[in-house]
Amino acid sequence: MALYAELHRHLGGSVVPRVLWRYFQRHADDKIERFADYAAFEDFYTRPRNTLDEYLELHTLVESVQTIETLPYFVYRLIRGAYIFENLAYLEIRYTPYLRTSEHLTQSQRIEQMAEIVDVVGKASQLSEYPIVTSQILCMHSRLPYEVNRAIVDLAAQKREYVCAVDVAGGDGHYAERLEEFVQLYAYARSLGLNTTGHLYETPAGCYPELLPYLMRIGHGIQIPLLHPELLPDLASRQQCLEVCPTTYLKTGTLQDMRQLKLVFDRCLDAGVDIAICTDNAGLHNVRLPFEYENLLTLDIIDFDELQACQDAAFRHAFAWPYGDRPASLLNGLLKPSLPTGVLAMQD
């Protein structure tokens, strides 16, 4: 029974270790020849890193094999797992399309090829046997030139049948020297009527208040309640939602203990700032969305009422969810027993 919404799932980090291992065995065994067996590969792929930058290097391992030809293979397995194992009714897949284009092409040719990448991902996501509402978020990147990032924004505007928003990724500590450029790009995106989110306030090095007014949601954003709680009233007034990905902060060395998130949830909920609980990179973490919920409950970071509030917020802030209510609310109406006509008359 599909019940949940996932608002922050990277295409590169969504591939679970077993699927990636099998792909490498069949098509690129040079990438795993240094590992003695699957267990050694899984340990390498999922173990914590010391910094966010070190963690993000793992994305390049997957990006190098996610091409026009292979994307349907990876997207199919992502959708299948999300439906069967995570009970997802809604999924936003985010990625940088330029990094899936052919490296032998010129920059202008790769920009042109991005449209084909979006089409391939969009069509591969529509599976009748796994009925999940899906949409794409196209990520600008801190290490790509302005021309490519602007082309990504333009592509998002051109492909609204598949794309629901734009984002910026690549490590929030790298935006500083190009901050005005990203402000201009987000202002441009908003002028085109695009939805916006952005990897921001994930680490202490990624705190840029200049970008906040342009974002409808904030990717991570945990440093706002931790280090800058004075900003929370502004977030509440703008109805911005934080996309909190609990396991990520342990994998990147940003937090040492998941219990540190209790302050994040407490301060946000007290201030009226919504939180959507997400996975970020379910494959890299080997942790699916229901387990993120369970971990937060088990560690007494949130209670069941707060969990439901976060689940409701995920659907409320979903950029492409087409219904007024979340699936649980829709099911409640379907499951109510219908009363015989005579009984209804007696009640009247």
From TrEMBL:
Adenosine deaminase domain segment(s): 5-320
Gene3D superfamilies given in the database record: Metal-dependent hydrolases
Protein keywords: Hydrolase, Metal-binding, Zinc
Record GO cellular component, one term: cytosol
A Pfam family assignment: A_deaminase
Enzyme Commission number, as recorded: 3.5.4.4
GO molecular function list: adenosine deaminase activity; metal ion binding
SUPFAM superfamilies: Metallo-dependent hydrolases
Top enzyme category: hydrolase
Gene Ontology biological process terms from the UniProt entry: adenosine catabolic process; hypoxanthine salvage; inosine biosynthetic process
Cofactor names: Zn(2+)
InterPro entries: A_deaminase_dom, Ado/ade_deaminase, Metal_Hydrolase
Protein origin, superkingdom: Bacteria
PANTHER family the UniProt entry points to: ADENOSINE DEAMINASE
Family listed: Belongs to the metallo-dependent hydrolases superfamily. Adenosine and AMP deaminases family.
Protein name in the entry: adenosine deaminase
Organism annotation: Chroococcidiopsis thermalis (strain PCC 7203)
